[in-house]
Amino acid sequence: MSQELEFFATCPKGFEKLLAQELDGLRIKKVRPLGGQVAFYGSLADAYRVCLWSRLTSRVILVLDRVGAATSDALYEGLSHIAWEDHIGPHATIAVSAHGTNDQLRNTNFIAVRTKDAIVDRLAAKRGSRPMVNTLAPDVTIVVRVSRNRATVGIDLAGEALFKRSLTGGRGPAREFAPLRLDYAAALLYLQVQTAASASGFSPDAPLPALLFPGAGALAQEAAGMALDVAPGILRARWGMTGWAGHNDDAWQDLLAEADERAEKGQERQVTLYAADPRPKAKEAVLYTLRAGGLKADVQFLAASELLKHAEHFTGIVADLSWTKEEPTLQGSAYSTLGLFAGQSSTLLTSDTNTDTVLRATPSQTLSVYVGNSIATMRSYPAAIAEEAGGGEADATAPASNSESTSVPAGPTVMVNNQPVSVLVPASDQFAARLAKVAKQRAKWARKNDVSCYRVYDADLPDYAVSIDIYKGATKPTTWLQISEYAASKEIDPDLAKRRLLDVLALAPRILGIPSSNVNLRTRTRAKGGSQYSDEGSAADNSRKEMLLIDEGGLLFEVNFASRLDCGIFLDHRDTRAEIRELMKSAGPAKSFLNLFAYTGTATCYAADGGALHSTTVDLSKPSLEWAKRNMKRNGFDGEEHEFVQADVLSWITETRHTKNRWNVIFCDVPTFSNSSRMRQSSFDVQRDHAELIIGISRLLTRGGVAIFSCNLRTFKPDVEKIQRAGVIIEDITSETIPEDFSRNQKIHHAYKISRKPRENE
Fold first, then answer.
1. How far is 237 from 485, CA to CA, in rounded Å?
2. Count of C-beta atoms within a 10 Å radius of residue 747
């Protein structure tokens, strides 16, 4: 086959123009970008060169023919006239890959079967034997692409997709990170070189971009391969063309020999990669990936702020933000780091346009691509000095690619510890100032009162409706932030609310001096019975979420930011727990304590520390009870006198009232609403059902016993008349149980002291 042949190089949608430029650099002629592919003409050697050297091509298809496909019979007939005996050897296995449909051929599986039938029937007629089908590792892959009433038929010369050239195989530290496809990594690098040099193409001798968030190492692998002049397919073990009967092995071996020679010569180069990624194990993942491919490069892994000091050694930055997806915690952390590079030329893979504000620039070029099933963009920003305020903003309706480079007004920044932090909302400077002021005051209060875990901000500014809690480790110097977003009203623009939240997530860790990887986010959504939290975000790397031991009131408690909706302790009940300890000290001789809806048993620990000789901890959740047992044991309270009961609390109270079991002190921190399938009754609503619950609790008290009942429904109002008619005394002690750090929100919870009216003869 020495004549000029027709080929298609397939690629992700959006890569067509970039791939055409790459093929031109590989000396391929007659290149024509199409939808999701680039057509070209040449020899087999040209197609083999594309297979071996292209970083953007997914597959290379040799076009055999175009046949009619108005009906399945027409397709079968057309395929039957192709000389398959010239392409499929006597012992070769085959597979068919079908794409596209029309009015008559509406199922690609049917098209593939019909194609296979035509091929095997012709070969059976010609040879008297039928080829075997092997869908996993065929010798020859036939590709059929139906468009309208025609079908293009070809041979896949690549075999497996060319972007599947990972050097690690998903092993080692790289597995800790969301993978970036290697053709996407190459596209980012190509775009950045174009943006920085204002010219197309890539020269191995050109300066490399710095790598921001290289994660699993795809960006490093592609950058090092380009700089060292290593063919991306040089380590590939299996190719689609080698099992094809028309394969030109001499041409292929010549290309492999040339690639080996170039790679050997490339080893003489001194290649330095500059990279920054605050996520744990990122450096190890990059180095592991490079070692796996034998790519020798000196990796300067620096903090992002330090990376800027070496800007003369690289051409802007390339950043993969696809791993943040739609998780605000990850985005806030990433944007905070990205903002350091405002003014540098850069190319990013991102899921939204907030990066325009963070970098204070308008992209000179964008490519719309898919990351999984989600739409994302590759955005290239030239190095430029932003205009003063008053300049025009980017037109949101402009075309999605090759837009003219324009300047935008300088984006908002906030100074934190003498460092500018890019923000998305100008008013975020007010949030930063407020948080810094309150944090200083609250830290002084906490030191004075020996409090290590406390609330530092609680929607002090209504527009920044979040609470921020600090948790300091007791056994190791680790500090976490838990940021909880309150549900926004329907009148608030959701996009504006998200931008404010992202600014909070970028600013709070820096102001409070806590690593962004140690931030846990919860967002609130409206639900029946009040607000409910959903586990929205995670730390910058999920593997960093961990169990932490904290100290409160001289006791150790386990908190966990990994998989729990709540971390294991409610800080607003700090004073309530202290009151329980004091009540136990003065309790009757039995000194018994009952904890209902006990969660992780923190109140039980306080009661035991106050001298409880017997405790009963009741909760429906088995994991919570196991957690409670660990908390008790950790504080030295692990005897048989402390029992744990897994039960529906409401039913348990009803049943226990008919026994002789009674307790001196009872604590019941009730949920606002519950409709667990494990409850015997259909649901529980604290406003509707609290009176019966309080009366039931009172019946479990010893003579002179005291119970504390609490809930966090902001609008809660006790039915005092009904409760008192049942002979129960109810006293509002809410104000006495609100700690100083929660004083801004007097409705954080409601608390009542419950006791029984003494009988007349007592």
1. 51
2. 13
- Burial (0-12, 13-18, 19+ Cβ within 10 Å), 436: middle
Range scoring the smallest mean pLDDT among 393-407, 489-503, 569-583, 708-722: 393-407
CA distances from 251 to 40, 61, 156, 241 (A): 18, 17, 17, 12
d(CA 478, CA 225): 39
Only one residue has tokens 């029937």, namely 121
Q: How far from chain centre, in Å, is Cα 308?
A: 26
Question: Which residue pairs, CB below 8 angstroms and at least 24 apart, start in 462-469?
Answer: 463/427, 463/500, 464/428, 464/431, 464/500, 464/504, 466/501, 466/504, 468/435, 468/504, 468/508, 468/512, 469/571
Q: Provide the pLDDT confidence category of residue 588 given band limits of 50, 70 and 90.
A: confident
- Long-range contacts of the stretch 251-255 (C-beta < 8 A, 24+): 251/43, 251/44, 251/45, 251/48, 252/48, 254/45, 255/45, 255/48, 255/49, 255/52
Residue carrying structure tokens 């008619």: 725
Q: In terms of C-beta density within 10 A (0-12 exposed, 13-18 middle, 19 or more buried), how is residue 680 classed?
A: exposed
Q: What is the pLDDT of residue 478?
A: 92
- Give me 271's structure tokens: 């290649």
CA distance 606 to 593: 10
Helices (H) and strands (E) counted in the chain, each on its own, are 20, 32
- Rounded to an integer, what distance in angstroms lies between the CA atom of residue 179 and that of residue 221? 12
Both structure tokens of 263: 């790679």
- Please provide the average confidence, as pLDDT, over all residues in the chain: 88
The single residue listed with the structure tokens 């710095």 is 210
Asked if 673 contacts 528 with a C-beta cutoff of 8 angstroms, the reply is yes
Dump the DSSP string for 623-678: HHHHHHHHHHHHTT--STTEEEEES-HHHHHHHHTTSS--EEEEEEE--SEE--TT
* Cβ atoms of residues 409 and 488 within 8 Å: no
Distance (Å, whole) CA 204 – CA 193? 11
Q: How does pLDDT run across 226-267, given as a tens digit for each residue?
A: 999 999 999 898 999 999 999 999 999 999 999 999 999 998
Burial of 610 per CB tally in 10 Å (0-12, 13-18, 19+): buried
Distance separating alpha carbons of residues 73 and 79, to the nearest angstrom: 10
707 three-state secondary structure: strand
Helix, strand, coil abundance in the chain, percent, nearest 5: 35, 25, 40
DSSP state of 31: E
Quick one: three-class SS letters along 174-191? HHHCCCCCHHHHHHHHHH
CA 249 to CA 436: how far, in whole Å? 69
- DSSP helix/strand/coil, 7: strand
Reported as a pLDDT band with limits 50, 70 and 90, residue 615 is: very high
Phi, psi of 554 (to 5 degrees): 80, 10
Which of the given ranges, 363-377, 539-553, 717-731, has the highest pLDDT on average? 717-731
| Distance spanning both ends of the chain, measured CA to CA | 111
With cut-offs at 50, 70 and 90, classify the pLDDT of residue 623. very high
Give me the residues paired with residue 533 across strands.
524
Sheet strand arrangement including 5-10: 29-34, 37-42, 5-10, 59-68, 150-156, 140-147, 94-99
Question: CA-to-CA distance for 468 and 462, rounded, in angstroms?
Answer: 14
Q: Identify any residues that bridge with 685 across adjacent strands, giving them in sequence order.
A: 673
202 Cβ contact list (under 8 Å, min separation 6)? 25, 189, 190, 193, 226
- pLDDT value, residue 680: 55
| 183 Cβ neighbours under 8 A, 6+ residues apart | 11, 12, 15, 55, 56, 57, 58, 162, 163
Tokens, residue 173: 């530290």
Residue 200 confidence (pLDDT): 41
